[in-house]
Amino acid sequence: MGAVEDGGVRMIDTEAWVLYERSGPIQSALDSDDFRLEKFSFPGPESDELLVEPLFGSWEGNMTHSLQRRPIDICSQRRERRVVIGNGSVLRVLRAGSDVRGIHEGDVGILYGGHVQDEFGYTVLVQGYDAPGTVGVLAKRTKVPARNFLPLPLASNYRLEQWAAFSVRYLTAWSNYRVAIGAYRLQVDAHEDPAPYVLGWGGGSTLAALDLARRAGCRTAMVSGSSERLAELAGLGIVGIDRKSFSDIEYDEARYQRDPEYRAAYRRSERVFLDTVRDWTHGRNAAIVFDYIGAPVFRASVKALARQGVLATAGWLLGMQMTVNRAIECIGRHVHVHSHYIRHGDSPAAMDYAVREGWMPQVSEIYSWEEIGRLARDATAGRLRSYFPVYGVNPI
């Protein structure tokens, strides 16, 4: 891997897992040859950018979305024939641009993935996902804006693979939790409800948000259908709610209207779920529900809210469109919080808190660089054993 000239532009050659535009009628890149390991070249970094090598990457939901081409086809949206995805990682600096100050060769940090930000520093488009022209971290080398390199705290004793898992899921949870608890406290003071009930379902970001809530004195529970994950939750002091007891909870509005058997099965599962929540909360329902899944559980999530409750979402794992009864939500004084990743300037505070309080993911599943194709298939098929799947890229 090296550098070559292309029409006067210095190009960087590297090895990468490359996603191609759709080559035929098959939609998923995993069911064709549209996702493969090969040589990839990109223009060298500008004066305000860094040439970096990923050490560890975290497999994120948007990577699975990209390969499935749902809910968007990023090659089509970016108008690019092939792209390199991935935005959760630990990076090592290989070279800093001439205008970069305070970052040097050999420095290690995490990637702030918000490539395009609004005037207040909030993410609009993400590197290695929907930001055109960006090269993600499924590459032996890539480039990043220097402003988006977040050096690891000097006091950190955590492993690099933990920071890779932290870089997207935990930063997302930090921002979403702070807005959600702030919204709840605008309506219900701490002396009125000192230990709110906080419920969640989803993956690693949900777990991170619930762990923040637990550390703040909230009573927390998470829904999961995996016995391994339920045991992990118990070890963290979070109540596990077994989804298998209401296995037909996924809501499909069109099918609900036309299929009596499905409607009856859904209603039974919804009733069991809501009874379970009421039993856990002693009849109060949840002050906050972190729903990082989307449309299939949105209806149940809203019904599980207490009065003045907050529904908090970040991302759109399954389904982007939801139907809501405004009157019921207004009467219940429910607040809906929707967030996307984290504001750039809030990231260092989240990292400092993590080091100080031990708020970090436990990584138990690491795939090798050559196993990324298998990792992609495991993620798509729901075979991942961990909330925080990590892969290696370059040697430490």
Automatic annotation (TrEMBL):
Residue ranges of the Alcohol dehydrogenase-like C-terminal domain? 207-325
**Could you tell me the superkingdom of the organism this chain comes from?**
Bacteria
Q: Which InterPro entries match?
A: ADH-like_C, GroES-like_sf, NAD(P)-bd_dom_sf, Zinc_ADH-like
Q: What name has this protein been given in UniProt? A: Zinc-binding dehydrogenase
Question: What is the organism field in this record?
Answer: Nannocystis radixulma
